[in-house]
Amino acid sequence: MAFSDKNRAMFAGEIEDIKSKGLFKEKRFICSPQDAEITVEYPEGADQAKVLNFCANNYLGLSSHPDVVQAAHEGLDARGYGMSSVRFICGTQDIHRELQDKMSKFLGMEETLLFPSCMDANAGVFEAVLEADDVIIADRLIHASLVDGIRLCSAHYDTFKHMNMKHLEKKLQLHQDKRTRLIVCDGVFSMDGDLMPLDETVALAEKYDAMVLVDESHASGFIGKTGRGTHEHFGVMDKVDLITTTFGKGLGGASGGCVSGRAELIELCRQKARPYLFSNSLAPAIVAGSIKVLDLISGNPERRDKLEANTKYFREKMTEAGFIIGGQDTPIAPVMLYNAKLANDMARDMYAEGIYVIGFFFPVVPAGAARIRVQLSAAHEMEHIDKAVAAFIKVGEKYGVLGLDKKEIIEKYGM
User: Residue 40 in contact with residue 31, Cβ under 8 Å?
Assistant: First the structure.
């Protein structure tokens, strides 16, 4: 059926409705490498501006590291542009095996399997491992990619209140009749920056004969004493059964992901996971760059330590200024504003002050939980953070939100 004038008018009306509410997402283009300082064209057609980037997943500042870029060049020259195949046909090079082995060692897991992205890893792992008489019990704020992967699986699906161990225990008791119980959570929750209490989670899993899967995308490389992740932070590295994570954030920032865990579970993914069987292999240049990233950070906590110091400094300064900063002591530091238009407007004004941040609101976060999600990086220097805090104070004063609590902000701007 042709795209009729009626169809066009209907969808155009939806777009205009978004614009009228002040919630329209303008096109944005970065015109430089990813770093603490970037060049941006925003909105489309505007002059390019140099701004400080406080919304990237570039936690360790490695996205444009010269050694990583050089390794990618060398991988491109030595192994070609792409594999033109899926892994199980002719898409596996020895460097894919090398990266898998390095990730297993880094994460403290038995085996690892690469995927084109962590979204693909999450899309494939559940269907490969679980059956119809199993149950998944997931935290209610797990990442959308986990939710999508669970939907593809025939297992029963239940949830527990966010990081609520008493509620999790009740659900484990409820599902003792199932063949297998799999607890699913994020290690660091991407919107709120809080840490899943994996020590308590693992203890319940052991008590009720359950397995644990953790998405470590916002933890790998910088959470824990040596950056291994949330399972290292809570001292349960040998007790988590499956980890999914990405090379697209702290571990270089390009793309690619993996599932790491018990050997039998990883073998089932290799045999049955559809994104592994039907997606092109990770490009050699990205594999080579990711190997270099692991070489740079293994046994060298300097970047992790700098990120931790930057995080502490920003959180302290923003709290002193009168902002509500969500989450725990992670580099995801949401500035809570609760009103979607307020978050969007303040983010736009922050750009005018030379700070690149984005307003987050429904459906990305729950309704009434709008915020500007700030993300710290080891690439940031103290003067960058001071400039960001000063800009937040200036913009916060303009909108009259400094020193207000949640109730007062909602009374002033609504939800």
Answer: yes
Which residues, listed in sequence order, are joined to residue 115 by a DSSP beta bridge? 257
Active-site residue flag, 249? yes
Is 156 a residue of the active site? no
Catalytic residue at 65? Answer: no
- Mean pLDDT over 4-13 rounds to 92
66-297 belongs to CATH 3.30.470.10: no
Catalytic residue (choose from 96, 178, 218, 233): 218
Return the CATH fold of 22-53+301-413: Aspartate Aminotransferase, domain 1 (3.90.1150)
Report helix, strand and coil shares of the chain as percent, to nearest 5. 45, 15, 40
Spatial separation of the C-alpha atoms in residues 246 and 257, rounded to whole Å: 4
Which residues of the chain does CATH 3.40.640.10 include?
66-297
| Mean pLDDT, rounded, for 26-48 | 95
In this prediction the pTM is 0.95
> Exposure string (b/e) for 53-89, b if CB count within 10 Å is 16 or more?
bbbbbbbbbbbbbeebbebbeebbeebeeebeebbee
Type and span of the H or E element at 233:
helix 230-233
Residues near 70 by Cβ (< 8 Å), separated by ≥ 6?
A: 292
**Residue ranges matching CATH 3.90.1150.10 in the chain:** 22-53+301-413
